[in-house]
Each structure stands twice: as structure tokens, then as C-alpha cells.
Amino acid sequence: MSARYRTRTLLPSDQDTYRCAVDALRAGQVIAIPTETVYGLAGDAFNESALDAIFQVKGRPAMNPLILHIASHQAQTVQDLIDAEFVRPDVIPKDIEVALDRVMNAFWPGPLTLVLPRHERIPDRLTAGLDTVALRVPAHPVARKLIESTFPLAAPSANRSGRISPTSAEAVAEELKGRIKYIIDGDACEVGLESSILAYLEGQLRLLRPGAISLKELRRESGFKILPAQKHPVEVKAPGMLQSHYAPDTLLKTFRSENDLLQLLKSEEHSPPAILTLAPLNTENEELLSLMDSRQATAYFLSESRDFTEIARCLFARLRGLDQSPHGVIYAQLPPQDQGLGQAIRDRLLKAAAPRTLFS
Ligand code: TXA
Ligand code: MG
Asked: What are residue 60's phi and psi, to 5 degrees?
């Protein structure tokens, strides 16, 4: 796609910003907006040409559905979602409805998406023809204000399809400069990873995508059984679950232990490597240090104190930065398997390391 726009970055504090943004959205155009998870590429969810533009600007396959971002006042309870004609009436059993009401009360507005049976009014283009719709109430004040002053917004992450989600206005510009008219700069995203996706499918609640809100928290708040995200989904319920989806251009390999890292460094491929660890690599392993030296490896870390909130917040920005540096390969340390934020970080790193697929 060739450049069509002189992309302008707008600040929320500037007088004209909301008027420009609202005018563009009303005209069926798409703009990049900040959310607390990652930046979104937003358009009127009920305007077919806006939906077409989203898919076109991202280069996204039409079979990959979009999340509908809605206002808080329409989303306090499942009944509100039914009344607002987002969700189909009379299909969610009472016990699931109670569990979902609790989850909505605890986590909305916030980094959680719910996949529920769709109302017939929801465009096919948005849901890629599925009989469910993904709904989210974002917490970022800019996203909230825009939705409240216009209409529900369809918004995927504001990256070109298959690339790392942007967590700053500069990163959006790298991705979409020339393809959109406006980027609203709402600072670096607080969460830094895409929302957790919880779905009601086939009579059960299931986590489809791990995110800032953990399975443990969802189970605790809902008081209900929630199935974990599947590692290798037999049937693709969320294309975000497809193996490779968040990939930098640079080859990325993951390691768990110092010994794994040693083996990777011995492979001698793709120099010079970047070594990305969760906390500073304080090693006294002589063999490791000398291999790092001979391969001209550079060590980077994500958090001084191995704080997972901080790691999530800066992971994508760091991968983006490493992608632009002359490293032949990124060796990234995986967090241990757990059910908290570490699971979401693991998920994104494994996806970045997975073989590239048709959908990436
Ligand atoms: O944090 C987020 O969720 C960000 C911000 C902008 O809100 N959005 C985001 O959108 O990550 P996107 O399009 O990059 O990822 C949405 C994921 C995709 O993997 C899509 O396949 C899945 O949600 N999805 C959307 N509708 C679905 C549905 N009806 N059933 C299953 N998965 C669905
Ligand atoms: Mg995305």
C-alpha cells in the first residue's frame, strides 16, 4: 500500500485534537488511538468502509475478527450488553451471566476482552462471520472520551499485520506512517501487552489470550471454572492464538536457563547476538562470559528487579528497538511457567520465536 496521508501526531491537550479525531471517525476514516494495553487502529464499528479501511491499512486477513470497544455505561452487566444490542438475548445461561457480571464489575474499564454470542446487528465484517463478538471497555481516558463522544469503535492493535503491537505514538508512526491521517499521542501504554481474552464458547468459559489479567484473578472474581488458554488450539478460536503473530524481523530464540543460553551461543549463527534477560544477567560462568565476548554479544535486561509489570510494559518497545539494531539474532529469556503476568509475557515471546505462518 502506498503512502496517502501526511500523518499528523496530535496531543490530547491540544485544543483541536478531539474535533479532528471525531470528524475523521465520523467521515469513516481510521485513526490511531492510545489504550492502556497497546495503541489501537480505530474506526466506526458500524461503518463498512471504516471496517474495510482497518483491514486494508493493517494488511489484515479478512478472517481475523476485530474487537469492539464500547462505553462503560453500556457495559456494567451482561443485560446492558444485550440492551445495547451487542450481545444476543436469551442464550447465556444464568450462572455464566452471574460470573460474567462479576468479571465485568471487577475489570472493566480495563485490559480484558469478552467474547460473547453476537447480536444480529453486529456487522459480519467486524466478526469475520463468527457468531460471537469480542467486546472491551478500555480504561485509557483518550479512548474513553472518543468512544463516549462518538460510537463504538472497532480497533485492532495499530501495527501492520503480524508485527509487534505498538506501545507508543512513535511506534505507531513506524508502523503506519503515510497510511493514516492522525495518531493521538497518549503516552506510553501502561500495560504494554494486549488485553486478556475471556470467551464463552460451547457452554464454557475459556481464556483465549493471556494478558494483564491472569487466569487466577479471573477465576477468583468470577467464582467460576475457567479453562486455561490452549497451547495448541485444535480449532482456531482467536487468530491471535495462531503460532506466530507478534514477530520482530530479526530471528528470535528463547532460552530458560543459563545452560540453554550457553548452547545457543555455541551455535555460532547470526552474529552479533542480543541477549535479552528479565533481570540483569549477573553471571560468574566463565564459559558463558567468554562465549559472549567472542560472539560480540550485547546483554540487555527488562527490569532491574525482575518486576513483571515493568517487564510487560517495556517488552514490545525493547523488541522494536532491538529489531532496528544490527543484531543477527535475539536470544530472549522466558519467564517460568505460571498463571500470572509471566504467562502473557511467555506467550508473546513464544509467538515471536515461532515459525512465521501465513497469518503472521
Ligand atoms: O488490548 C487489546 O486487545 C488491543 C487494544 C487496541 O484494545 N487490541 C487488540 O486487537 O489486541 P487485535 O485485533 O490485535 O487482537 C484481537 C484478537 C485477535 O487475535 C482476534 O482474532 C481475536 O481478538 N478476536 C476478535 N474477535 C473474536 C471472536 N469473536 N472470537 C475469537 N477471537 C476473536
Ligand atoms: Mg494485534
From this structure: -95, 135
Q: Is the CB of 67 under 6 A from ligand 1?
A: yes
Q: Which atom of ligand 1 is nearest to the CA of 136?
A: 7
Long-range contacts of 337-343 (CB under 8 A, 24+ apart): 339/214, 339/215, 339/216, 339/228, 340/214, 340/216, 340/308, 341/212, 341/214, 341/308, 341/309, 341/311, 341/312, 342/308, 343/210, 343/214, 343/215, 343/229
Binding site membership of 65 for ligand 1 (Cβ less than 6 Å): yes
Number of the ligand closest to the Cα of 196:
1
Q: What percent of the chain is predicted at pLDDT more than 70?
A: 93
Q: Considering only CA atoms, which residue is closest to atom 22 of ligand 1? A: 238
User: Is the distance from the beta carbon of residue 239 to the nearest atom of ligand 1 less than 6 Å?
Assistant: yes
Instruction: Give Cα 142 to chain centroid, integer Å.
Output: 18
Q: What is the pTM of this model?
A: 0.95
Q: Is the pLDDT of residue 245 over 70?
A: no
The pick from 35, 81, 125, 157 for probing ligand 1's pocket by mutation, whose C-beta has the most ligand atoms within 8 angstroms, reads 157
- Report how far ligand 1's centroid is from the alpha carbon of 197 (Å): 8
What angle do the packed helices 341-353 and 308-324 form, to 10 degrees?
20
Q: pLDDT tens digits for 169-204?
A: 999 999 999 999 999 999 999 999 999 999 999 999
Residue minimizing CA distance to atom 6 of ligand 1:
40
Q: What tens digit of pLDDT does each residue of 151-174 get?
A: 999 999 999 999 999 999 999 999
Q: How confident is the model at residue 338 (pLDDT cuts 50, 70, 90)?
A: confident
